Every structure is written in structure tokens, then in C-alpha cells.
Design the sequence.
């Protein structure tokens, strides 16, 4: 695996955890290539980690199978807000390709209702809203499950309807903010400029919105007696 090319983007670890690879760097003394990555969903306080390329590209034994330690997720697109944040920290954003793979080819890049906390669940719904909505509309148009399983489509539809209904009722005060940030794709900086706010105020608004949505998701689960989070791995 020494010749494997590591590109910026999302990767799923063998245990299900998703990370974002920012870039690679070469140790000036050993000339060994190092992978720089951070956890996903992105934490409020950035935490950057490094792994040797050899370790990152290794295979591991898990559940009786030999698996790649990290597998790239081709379909998860990093948001403009995330790119802006990385640039603020001194990292270059990913290089944009001129073409995109068709949705039908991008099958295993999105898991539904697999977050470890309700706050992460709320962030996941918002950051993937446009992609999820496009996938839902494609399935409805084609009248078949396109690049998604029946069970995942049910989760996708459930989450979209819940979020849309919440923004029309309990979270009505955040509807315009959600539309500009997660539908139209404005970064925090551009949203702040458009509304003549400072970035701190927009960050605070986003935290309040995510927290409010997280509470609603938890209340839904408690009311229905269901658990839509991923259960932590047992040691």
C-alpha cells in the first residue's frame, strides 16, 4: 500500500467512525509521509491528529474479517463552511474536480441515523440536507430505490419530514437561517456579512439551532420509545 494516494476528504474507519483527512505532509528528518486528519462531525474546538501513511493504509482484523483501516467515502462533500474553517486554521481546502460521479455509483457513502449523540445527529441532518433531499427526489421520480436500500430510504424520508416540519413549527425562528446556510450554502462568514453580524454571533446562533434540533430529536425518540442513535461499541 506504499504507493496508495491519500486525498483530502472523508474516510470511514473499520469501526464505523468517520474522519476527515485534511492533507499529507512529509517528515523533514525521516522523509516519512504523514496523514493529517480530524474527527467528524467537526468539533466546536478543532482537534487535529496525525497518522503515518503506513498505519493509515494498513489492514486490520475486525469481526473475523480482514478490512482496510480507512476507506474513502467518495460521495460526502465537504461544505463551504468547513473549507472556510480549515483555511482559517491554515489548511488548504480540497482540490475540486471538474466532474462528479453519478448518484447511482455512490452507494455506501452515507449512513442514516448512525450518530453517537443527538447533537451530532442534528448537525448530520443539516450538513447533508441538500444531498439527502436530492436523493429522496430522485427515488420518488424514478419510483425505485436508487443508490439506497429500502430501510435507509425509510430513515431518509423520516428525517427529512421531521426536519421540514420542525422548521415550519417549533423551529420557525431558524427557518430563514437554515435556508441560507444549509440550502443555499452560505458559509458562516458570508452569512455574517449578508446580515451585518460578526462571526461570533452567527456561531452562537448555529449552536442554539443545533441544540434546539437535538432536543427535538431526543424528545421524538423518547415519545416513540425508539433509539435512532448508533450504540457505542462494546469493549
Sequence:
Amino acid at each position: 500500500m506504499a504507493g496508495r494516494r491519500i486525498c483530502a476528504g472523508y474516510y470511514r474507519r473499520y469501526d464505523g467512525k468517520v474522519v476527515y483527512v485534511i492533507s499529507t505532509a512529509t517528515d523533514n528528518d525521516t522523509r516519512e509521509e504523514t496523514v493529517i486528519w480530524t474527527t467528524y462531525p467537526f468539533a466546536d474546538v478543532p482537534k487535529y491528529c496525525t497518522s503515518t501513511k503506513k498505519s493509515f493504509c494498513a489492514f486490520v482484523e475486525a469481526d473475523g474479517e480482514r478490512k482496510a483501516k480507512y476507506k474513502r467515502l467518495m460521495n460526502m462533500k465537504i461544505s463551504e463552511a468547513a473549507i472556510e474553517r480549515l483555511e482559517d486554521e491554515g489548511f488548504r481546502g480540497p482540490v475540486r474536480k471538474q466532474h462528479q460521479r453519478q448518484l447511482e455509483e455512490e452507494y455506501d457513502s452515507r449512513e442514516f441515523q448512525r450518530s453517537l449523540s443527538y447533537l451530532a445527529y442534528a448537525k448530520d441532518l443539516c450538513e447533508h440536507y441538500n444531498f439527502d433531499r436530492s436523493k429522496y427526489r430522485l427515488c420518488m421520480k424514478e419510483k425505485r430505490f436508487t443508490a439506497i436500500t429500502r430501510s435507509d430510504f425509510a430513515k431518509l424520508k423520516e428525517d427529512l419530514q421531521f426536519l421540514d416540519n420542525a422548521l415550519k413549527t417549533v423551529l420557525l425562528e431558524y427557518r430563514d437561517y437554515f435556508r441560507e446556510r444549509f440550502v443555499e450554502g452560505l458559509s458562516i462568514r458570508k452569512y455574517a456579512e449578508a446580515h451585518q453580524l460578526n462571526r461570533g454571533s452567527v456561531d452562537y446562533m448555529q449552536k442554539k439551532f443545533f441544540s434546539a434540533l437535538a432536543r427535538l430529536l431526543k424528545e421524538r425518540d423518547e415519545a416513540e420509545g425508539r433509539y435512532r442513535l448508533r450504540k457505542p461499541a462494546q469493549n
